[in-house]
Predict the structure.
Amino acid sequence: MKSTRREKGMAVFIPAAGLGTRLRPITEIIPKEMFPVGKKPLLEHTIEQCKKAGCKRVIIALAKGELSSRIIKDYFQNGARCGMHIEYVYAPPTGIDKAFRAAKKNLENKPFLFLAGDMYITSTKLIKTLFSEFKKHPEGVLALRKEKETHRFAMAECSTKKKGTVTIKHLVEKPERDKSPSELASVGIMMLPRNFYRYFGTGKKEVQLSATLNAMFKEHPAQGMVTSEKIFDCSNIAEWVAANQYVLKASTAE
């Protein structure tokens, strides 16, 4: 499958400015985005999947002055080792809204692919399908997966359902299972429209990504793309171990 012009020009935004406090003391030595998955850091796998999907530019948000940021930048530098162009922006490690604002100029007021830096994506197909759905739904497309551990994710309240997609009306941040609006979780992989920044507002108080998406949904619901592709949330130790087991099994099967 050849990449379209839009895919080739698509910028990828990956926030990596958080300090990984839930994973301390491990993250005092190595940022979670650099946790090894097989023989490579997690973030390198993510960037390689983006390249295979046709992307050429990656913007990574780092926390200025932190050891974690220096480790990431020293490893990837300008992106040549991955065959990508990598740019860095700096934000306080106190909220994803600040990372988005730091990247605004680099994203050039164009639609962009957002990827959480701690997710291990096993297939380029997921990203390519996201691009394809965004062409039909430029108001925004979020990747969703069925999830039992609802307290770890933003869970989607949906309305219209079609084959493989739903219309997202609202996200509920980390509800208990009996209070979750559905079994579909947002996994931090999404195509966002160019005007997304205006939904953060202008206040200084930290704004969660789910709250910003909900502000957007009030104007126009977005599409949810339900995926069965394997995705591992490596901010969870059990899933990070499972990701390594997956890679080991795949390598021994070759």
Notes: The chain is about 30% helix and 25% strand. The helical segments are 5-9, 42-52, 67-76, 96-103, 124-136, 209-219, 237-253.
